[in-house]
């Protein structure tokens, strides 16, 4: 994997080469080189390993997703800020079934770094709401659910938001340990 700045340097060098091809009259070569340079610019903004990890998650292959994420050794130097947000978002999803405290840390960091799509922000906030509810922080969970609902303009998380609200109503009558057990079983639907 190339450092994010090396990708831009390679793209610039290829673009200069393309300009020389245009000057020499090799139009097709110049266009092909510009296309090649655009691939490096694309991968500057959309990291190839994060794209592959998303693909593995779509297939429900969590080990495969973790394998691709583990190839990113130093996220702050290898990724632009929003891609680092997605790096943390994906890690949060991967550890949410086993370690809620670590998952919460990853989701909070992903939101602080920023995510490109409002749907992804809504999903991170909904995951945080589930974690807050399982830790008996009902006020925080309520706030996060309402923020997630506002961000979910397409209604893609409508069922999960409704389920979370139902869990909150049930939680009002349960003890902390009962609620945590209930949330552990319900959170699988958020993937």
What does this structure look like?
It is elongated and about 80 Å long. The model is unreliable at 176-180 and 182-191 (pLDDT under 50). It has 2 domains: 1-45, no CATH class; 47-190, Tetratricopeptide repeat domain (Serine Threonine Protein Phosphatase 5, Tetratricopeptide repeat, Alpha Horseshoe), CATH 1.25.40. It has helices at 4-23, 27-45, 48-58, 62-70, 75-78, 81-95, 100-113, 118-134, 138-151, 158-171, 176-186. The relative contact order is 0.08. The protein is mostly helical.
Structure described in brief:
The protein has 191 residues and is an all-alpha fold. It has helices at 4-23, 27-45, 48-58, 62-70, 75-78, 81-95, 100-113, 118-134, 138-151, 158-171, 176-186. The model is unreliable at 176-180 and 182-191 (pLDDT under 50).
Class from secondary-structure proportions: mainly alpha
Unreliable residue stretches: 176-180, 182-191
* Rg (CA only): 21 Å
Mean of residue pLDDT values: 84
Number of domains: 2
Report the β-strand fraction as a percent range: under 5%
Per CATH, the architecture of the largest domain is: Alpha Horseshoe
Helix fraction, binned, reads: over 70%
What is the name of the CATH topology of the largest domain? Serine Threonine Protein Phosphatase 5, Tetratricopeptide repeat
Shape: elongated
Q: Count of helical segments?
A: 11
- Number of DSSP strand runs: 0
């Amino acid at each position: 994997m190339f450092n994010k700045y090396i990708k831009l340097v390679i793209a610039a060098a290829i673009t200069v080469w393309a300009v020389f091809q245009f000057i020499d009259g090799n139009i097709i070569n110049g266009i092909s080189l510009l296309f090649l340079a655009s691939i490096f610019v694309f991968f500057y903004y959309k990291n190839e390993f994060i794209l592959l990890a998303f693909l593995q998650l779509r297939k429900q292959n969590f080990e495969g997703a973790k394998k691709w994420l583990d190839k990113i050794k130093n996220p702050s130097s290898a990724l632009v800020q929003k891609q680092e947000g997605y790096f943390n978002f994906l890690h949060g999803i991967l550890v949410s079934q086993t370690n809620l405290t670590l998952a919460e840390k990853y989701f909070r960091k992903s939101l602080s770094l920023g995510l490109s799509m409002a749907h992804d922000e809504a999903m991170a906030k909904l995951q945080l709401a589930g974690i807050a509810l399982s830790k008996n922080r009902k006020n925080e969970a309520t706030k996060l659910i309402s923020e997630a609902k506002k961000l979910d303009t397409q209604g893609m998380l409508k069922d999960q938001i409704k389920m979370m609200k139902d869990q909150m109503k049930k939680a009002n009558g349960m003890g902390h340990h009962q609620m945590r057990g209930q949330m552990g079983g319900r959170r699988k639907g958020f993937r």
